[in-house]
């Protein structure tokens, strides 16, 4: 009986299996769409970069709901709205602009939303959401037109620096006050909280720990600080006899839809109070525009993605993403959505394409399952992170020539009046009017942009209207 001989192996290369061929086709498709090879990166490197960026900005999932819930909105729904707005923005940025930019609700704007628009001006949060969405529409029109370049050129540097530094200082003050580290005093108006209070000591520990983590460049420093202080707060008594941190009802839970905030905009209120809202529209528009512009310049520069002439690739798509996300954000129930400067951490980890942004979106999807944990984070845990964010917003002061009073005075007045009166509009108004007065008396009337003249008129009208209703 003859032995069966094995079939002869082919002498040429083995034909790839259907699964292997499909995998190579998918890899080639991803490479071609995101231009990975062209930008000197890989799928693995982009995923690591996205994880790094998420770690650096994940604090927003805790901080944004903590701030905006002060406007009377449901905190659990705000956790979902924050994450969903970030998911939308990151996916759109990755697919349309192909840049390693993460997008989420903006720090600063959420403070103005809650403490200026709702608490000080008395606008219902539904009307405030409509105003933010309207800002997004204006920003989208601006992003798709030549007006973008004109605004970038016309708004004076002194006003930009003053407004940003004022918001940063206001964030620091509100964070410390919310944590009980700064309290009212009948003699000095404000004072430091008692060091005999365990919750004040917890905040103090955070104020010492968080800058150290950031200065040491610890990955995810802010979210690590928030997590550590939240855990410690489980064992620290608060003034009400309970612990600073409440025990969460669960660690994991199915994501919840932001039912109470979704599509809750009151467009009618915006139009019936348009004159009062006008200065704030200007603030949101400028804050959104210059924040995005600065982030684009910083991140693309760090990633060596700018063209030889200095222009930014897909800048129009990036601006349009921010604008569209700022329309979608209020529909979900959150404030202005913008590109995050923390994206630089992902660039430093090797991120060069929109695949980094899609990875960040995936992590925000995962965070939706941990919403019971985010809603119990106390203000003592978020205050140190907010202080660091506020300090970062003051960096423009380094570009101020304090010997030039015509430049320094509007900046300093904007900052000080904002904080001392606890009102951004007061600071913006005095800073703008001071800038106009100085430019006119210095013989530089012709150099004042028409936009700044118009802004001065708006602030005067705003003062007249608010004097009648307040």
Task: Give the SSE map.
Elements: H1 18-34, H2 43-57, H3 59-68, H4 75-97, E1 103-105, H5 109-118, H6 125-143, H7 147-154, H8 157-178, E2 182-185, E3 189-192, H9 198-215, H10 221-233, H11 267-272, H12 274-302, H13 315-332, E4 337-339, H14 343-348, H15 354-367, H16 371-374, H17 379-393, H18 405-421, H19 424-441, H20 450-469
Antiparallel strand pairs: 1-4, 2-3
Report on the structure:
This protein is mostly helical and 470 residues long. It has one domain (37-394). The protein has 20 helices and four strands. The chain has a two-stranded antiparallel ribbon with strand order 1-4. Strand 2 and strand 3 form a beta hairpin. Helix 3 crosses helix 4 (75-97), helix 9 packs antiparallel against helix 10 (221-233) and helix 12 crosses helix 20. The longest helix has 29 residues, at 274-302. It is globular and about 80 Å long. Mean pLDDT is 85; it is low at 1-11.
Give the overall pLDDT as a whole number. 85
Q: Name the overall outline.
A: globular
The oligomeric state of the chains shown is single chain
Rounded radius of gyration (Å): 25 Å
Helix-and-strand structural type: mainly alpha
The domain tally reads 1
Helix content: 55-70%
Number of strands: 4
Largest sheet: 2 strands, antiparallel
Unreliable segments of 5+ consecutive residues: 1-11
Distance N to C terminus: 109 Å
Query: Could you give the order of strands across the largest sheet?
Result: 1-4
Number of helix segments? 20
**Secondary-structure element series:** HHHHEHHHHEEHHHHHEHHHHHHH
How much beta, percentage-wise?
under 5%
């Amino acid at each position: 009986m003859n032995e069966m001989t094995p079939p002869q192996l082919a002498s040429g290369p083995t034909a790839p299996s259907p699964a292997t061929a499909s995998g190579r086709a998918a890899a080639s498709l991803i490479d071609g769409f995101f231009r990975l090879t062209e930008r000197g990166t890989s799928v693995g490197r982009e995923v690591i970069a996205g994880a790094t960026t998420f770690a650096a900005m994940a604090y927003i999932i805790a901080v944004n709901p903590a701030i905006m819930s002060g406007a009377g909105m449901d905190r659990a729904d705000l956790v979902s709205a924050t994450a969903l707005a970030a998911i939308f923005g990151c996916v759109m940025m990755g697919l349309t602009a192909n840049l390693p930019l993460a997008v989420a609700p903006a720090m600063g704007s959420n403070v103005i939303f809650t403490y200026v628009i709702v608490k000080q001006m008395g606008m219902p949060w539904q009307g405030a959401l409509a105003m933010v969405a309207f800002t997004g529409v204006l920003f989208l029109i601006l992003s798709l037109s030549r007006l973008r370049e004109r605004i970038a050129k016309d708004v004076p540097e002194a006003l930009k620096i003053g407004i940003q530094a004022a918001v940063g200082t206001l964030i620091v003050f509100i964070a410390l006050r919310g944590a009980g580290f700064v309290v009212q005093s009948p003699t000095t108006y404000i004072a430091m909280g008692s060091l005999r209070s365990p919750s004040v000591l917890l905040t103090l520990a955070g104020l010492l720990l968080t800058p150290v983590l950031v200065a040491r460049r610890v990955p995810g420093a802010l979210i690590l600080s928030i997590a550590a202080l939240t855990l410690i707060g489980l064992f620290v008594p608060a003034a009400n006899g309970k612990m600073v941190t409440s025990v969460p009802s669960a660690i994991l839970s199915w994501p919840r839809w932001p039912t109470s905030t979704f599509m809750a905009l009151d467009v009618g209120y915006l139009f019936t109070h348009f004159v009062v809202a006008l200065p704030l529209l200007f603030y949101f528009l400028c804050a959104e525009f210059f924040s995005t512009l600065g982030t684009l310049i910083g991140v693309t520069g760090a990633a060596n993605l700018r063209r030889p002439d200095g222009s930014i690739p897909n800048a129009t798509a990036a601006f349009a993403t921010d604008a569209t996300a700022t329309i979608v954000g209020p529909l979900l129930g959150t404030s202005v959505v913008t590109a995050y400067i923390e994206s630089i951490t992902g660039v430093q980890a090797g991120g060069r394409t929109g695949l980094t942004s899609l990875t960040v979106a995936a992590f925000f999807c995962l965070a939706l399952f941990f919403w019971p944990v985010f809603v119990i984070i106390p203000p003592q845990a978020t205050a140190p992170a907010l202080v660091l964010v506020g300090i970062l917003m003051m960096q423009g002061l380094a570009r101020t020539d304090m010997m030039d009073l015509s430049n320094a005075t509007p900046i300093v007045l904007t900052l000080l009046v904002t904080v001392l009166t606890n009102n951004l509009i007061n600071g913006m108004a005095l800073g703008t009017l001071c800038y106009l007065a100085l430019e006119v008396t210095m013989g530089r009337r012709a150099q004042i942009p028409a936009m700044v003249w118009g802004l001065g008129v708006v602030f005067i009208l705003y003062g007249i209207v608010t004097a009648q209703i307040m």
